[in-house]
Every structure is written in structure tokens, then in C-alpha cells.
Amino acid sequence: MHFKNRSWAFITMIFKSVLAARLWLIAYVVLIIIPASIFLYAYSQRYSHILEEEVTRSMLQTLKQAEINLDHQFDNLRDTSNSLFTNVKLVEYLNNSSSYSEQIDALKEMRLLIDNIQINTNVFRVRLYVDEQKLFSHEKVNFFTIETLMTRPWYEKVKSASGRLVWTGVYDEKFIENPEDTKFIFSGIRLLRDPNHYDNVSGFLSLDVEAKTLENIVAGISLNNDQRVFIVAPDGSIVFHSDKSLLGTKLESKAVLQAIEANKEGVSPIVENDTQQYVVYTTIDATGWKLVAEVPKKGINSRAASLNQFSSVATLTGVTILFLILVFILLAFIVRGMNRRVQTVIRAIKREGVAGLEERTVTSDGDFNLLEKSVDHLIHRVKDLMEETYRSKVQEREAQLRALQAQINPHFLYNTLDTINWIAIGHKVHDISHMIDGLARYFRLSLNKGKDVVTVTDELELAKVYLEIQQSRFPKSFEFVFELAGKDEAEEETRGGHTLETCLIPKLTLQPIVENALLHGIRKSKGKTGKITIRAYIEEDNLFLSVTDDGIGMDPDFAQTLLTEPRPAMRTDGSGSSYGLYNVNERIRLFSGEAYGLSIQSQLGEGTTITARFQLQQQIIEPNSNS
Q: Do the record's keywords include Transmembrane helix (predicted)?
């Protein structure tokens, strides 16, 4: 029982170790096994292709050897025909001025010569086609009239050859001595001329050879069990085939015809009837015929595989085993080094005493699982700390703003400004009175009784007061326009029950944008004059406030950094002001969410438009208690 428990524990440990190293196993399969398999497959395919080329080359050599034998046979027949063609007795016999006695003498010697040729060579029959006035022209054994040849399909070709030897394809023929027996023969025929009148045709000489002569040579060609060997004339007609019904017909396969027309000899792959095969061919020089063999590709592949199957399998197996051994040795060193590093990291984590890190034995979950859980715990702790730090920063910024606002005693400020205003009126300095009155309104709106959220209407009024004060400060230097929804657009602006009067936004959101438009846009332009347009509108569930100036503008890349990088404050005494857009953007995102904030469209010399996008938040209006 104890042995079974130990065995089960060992198997469980191995299984958990395999699971812990699953990424390494996947990497091993992807980076080693798959590339190795692809390499071995490519190697086998290339090796098979080389063997296939060797097999087809061997087939071509076999076919060329048969072509040499055929050329030898045709050369011997040509020499026999030449000996008859130049025979003196044949010339005497063909001479139209020869007497009957001279013809008889010539025929005696010609008969002996013909019998000798038919006995000692491959010639089955010698036939002479002569004028019907000649002696023995109607014999129909060795002598025939010219008229009997005129019905043959090759008559005109032989006649136009002007004495050159013309070879016919295999055809069937019946002879007078055995009219019921059909012989398959092929013939070499040439035209004979009158020696005294060379322009006149005196006859034709034909050497007939049994088709067995071709069959014996072709039968010796051994390429494949499924081979088809035949001979084709240059015009595409079949001059020899094992199927006698195809003799004299045109070869139907256009693919084969196109393949053998390309060169004198070669090997061409073709696809016919959805079957891949090779056409091996060579030219018989004596006749111009093509000796053709059609061999299915599957037969060549099987023959190529059988040539060196054992050696190729042994080579591939040896290379594979050696490759895998080297890979496993390399992996052993890598895993050993990784385990050492993992142990070092785990010891360091334990030594630091990470809060909440449970002690786990290596044999239970494995080093990798312990490392993963430890690092995961650390990541969560770091994220919590980052969020806590971020919230502290936001709270610190809001506390600083409140502290600055709290430093001003509203009642003391209002009373002081009111006293100054009456003094100015008493001295009839109305411009100072107007400016002091605007400043009082500005502070009243900006302080907002200590509230951090105001309505859009109040924020727009604050921007208006600020711009009026700046107009007093910089007279006739700029103008401003508010573009708000009118009564005829009430339905669009009140979509969802929201209006500009009831929408809430963070306090002091619009004023810094207006300040930047004036001091960094218009006041820095060449003429220090311009126009500021402030728009407020609602689209679906979004509130938009935009400020547009026609000042100097800025580089688009620089404009984007204003929203991503905080910048130090600058003086507000007219010599400059802070690009406080980063803080404004962060406050909007805290108020509405990460998807909201500022966007800047600007080009140098073309002005700037800054748009603030808020999520609609409506002010809750309590019902009047007196109603």
C-alpha cells in the first residue's frame, strides 16, 4: 500500500511538473519539433524529386538505346534499297529501249538478287511497281503495275520525294500466295527513273518489312508496368502501336503532341484525364519518327522509392535521433539554469517577507506555480499602491485649491471692494468704478460660496466678467462673442430634459481656457488684437464648451503635450500666464470619466480651438416649499 502511494505521488509530481512547464513544452513543439518536421519533409521531398529525375533520365536512356537499334535496322534496309537501286540489271530492265531478250536476261539475275535479299535480311518482300508494258509486270509477287500503287495514301509523298527513300507506317497487307492471311508490314519506297530519260518515272521500288521487327525492339523497352510505347510520324499519325486499330490514325492527346514537338528528345510531365504522367520521347533519325513512351507518375514514384528506400529511411531516422538527442541535452542545461534562477527569486521573495504570501512546499505546487502566485500577489500590491498614491495626489491638489480659496475672506473682500467702488463714484472716476464692480462679480462667482461644482450658466457668466475686466485692462485690443442656443433650438438643447441652466461642471473650468486664448493667443499675435468665440451646446448625452481665438496658434505636436505634461505656473500680471490645460483636463476626467476631457485643434498662424467635453449631469432643483 505504501509503495502504491509513493508511486501515485511520483506520477502526480511528474504530471504537475509537466503542467508547470507547459509553456516550455509548447515552445519546444513550435520552435523545434515543427521546424524539424518541416525540414525533414522538405528533405524527403527533395530527395524523392532527385530520384524521380534519375528514374526519368534512366527511362530516356533506355528509350534512346531502342532508338539506336531502330536506326541500325533502318540503315541496313536503306543500304539494301541502295544496292538494288543502283543494280545494273535493274537499270537494264527499266530502260524503255531494252528488248524482251535483254529484259529476260536482266530478270534472271534480278530474281536471284531479290531471293537472296529476302532470305538473308529482315526484308520480308521486295516489290517493283513498273509500267504494265514490262515483262512480268502482272506477276503480283515481286512485280506489280504502277497503277496498283496509285491507290495508296503515301503515293504522292513518294513521288514528290524524287528518289529519296520514304517510310510508311505499319499497315495490313494480303499477298497472292496466301490471300486469307493478313500480314502487318511497313515499307520503304522510292521512285525509279528511266536512265535514258531521267524526267520520266519508270517505276517504284518497295522493301517490305514485317511489323515484328519493330515489335521485337519495342518489346525490349522496360520502363514501367503501366507503360505505353508507340511511334508517331511528324504529322501526328500513329505509325506503330500495340493496338492495331490505332494504326494510321491521328494521336488524340494534344498534351502528348505538344510535349514531343518541343525538342528532339526529352521528358515532359503532363496531366491527362486528371492523371499525372510523364512523356518520354526520342527521335529516330533515319525516319524522323518519334519513339514515345507514356508512363504514369505514380509508377515513377514507386520505382524511385524502391531504388533507395532503406538507405533514405535509415538516414532520416539517424539524423532525427541525433537532432533530438542534442535538443534534449540543450534543454537539460536550460532547465537546470532556470530552476536555479527560480529558486533564487523565491528565496529573495521570502526573505523580503511579502505580506499575505503563504508558505508553500515545492512538492505540492512546484516552483513555477509558487513563483507565479508570488509575482501575481506583488503585482496586485503595486497596483493598489499606485491607485492609493493617485487618489492622494488628487486629494492633495483639491485641498490646495480649497486652501487658496479659503485664504480670502469673502465678506472682508466684498466690503473692501464696495468701499473702493463708492470712493471712485464719489470722485466721479466711473471707469475705475466699472472695473471694481466687475472684479467683485468675478470673485463672487469664482468663490461660489465654497462649492466645487457650478452650472454652465454661472461658468459662462464668470468667463464674461473676466473678459470684461481684461477689456478694461487692454482697451480696444479684442472682442468676444458667446454662441449659445436660442429659443428656436430649445428642443435640440433640451434633449433628454437637460438645459445649459441646469447642467453642472467643475468650477473654474472655462476661465483658464479663456485666459490662455487671450494671453497666449491674441496678446502674442503681431497686432495684439483679435476675437474670442465661446460656444456651449449639447449633443446626445454630452455637453460641449469650446473657446476659439484667431491668435498666433501653436504647433499641433506641442498642443498635445499641454494635455499630457503638467507645466509650471507663470505670472498673471500680463507678461504671461500658465498653460493650466493639464490640470483642467485632469479635473474633467475625474468629474466625468476617463473618456472625457479636452481636445485641441491648432495650427501656427491660424488660431486655436479648445473643446471641453463633459458627461451630462443635471442640477437637482428642489421644489418650492411655499407652493
A: yes
